[in-house]
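Let's practice the habit of predicting before peeking. Look at the sequence and jot down your guess about where helices and strands might fall. Then scroll down.
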Amino acid sequence: MKKTKNIIWIIALILVIILIGAIAFGYYKNATNEVKNPVATMEVEGFGTVKIELYPDKAPQTVSNFITLANRGFYDGLTFHRIVKDFMIQGGDKQGTGSGSATLADLKDDGSDTEYSIKGEFISNGVDNKLKFDEGVVGMARNDYTQQSSSLKEESYNSGSSQFFIMTKNNTSLNGYYTAFGKVIEGMDVVHNIEQVEVKASEDSKESSSSQQEVSTPVNPVKITSIRVETNGVDYGLPETLTPFNYSTWLYKQYGIDPSSLSKEQ
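Done guessing? Here is the structure:
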């Protein structure tokens, strides 16, 4: 009888050990199967490779937009058109001037040539994205129409499209007002080398007084050879697009001028 009880206890102990092992294995499997963040690899002609970790949990629309454009080849051959030392380097404009945006055709095969924008994902725009603009952080560029009218805050916040920038130094003034959606994890030395290129006054600022001119246009183009994003098998889908604010039309309306009449005169 005693021998039978011992056998039962041994069997019970074995079952407990097996159960604990199964639970432990389950936790291990879940931990090792955690979805890794997507990583963008950017090749810059004459400078090298930059790798950027993207944060879809912080800025899902911005990340899906960037991934789609990058993997469709949108950024291939574009430039870093704006470089401000001790601040950031900015690129992703197919016009190469800072005035261009992506179109729906850049996002999908059946898209139109209509330009689009996406929602700004930052605290001031109602999104709980607390990423700070420290050195190496990647942000979405946007327009700031509030310089013309304080009533255009929402239009400004939701005006990002394809242009992005990489911080070369910490800047707290951007925190909560621009979308931070990634960070350089390799190649920050490449970013700093780009930051050192010779620049001249931008075309847009040449008519301004010398004290207001932004000297940020590279004398020699800094070309992005390619950007591709490894998504680790995750489909981040397409971003929700918005109709971009037409500042020119708004400006004309403020003065009672019909934009169509102006185009006919030209």
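How did you do? The two ends are 107 Å apart (CA to CA).
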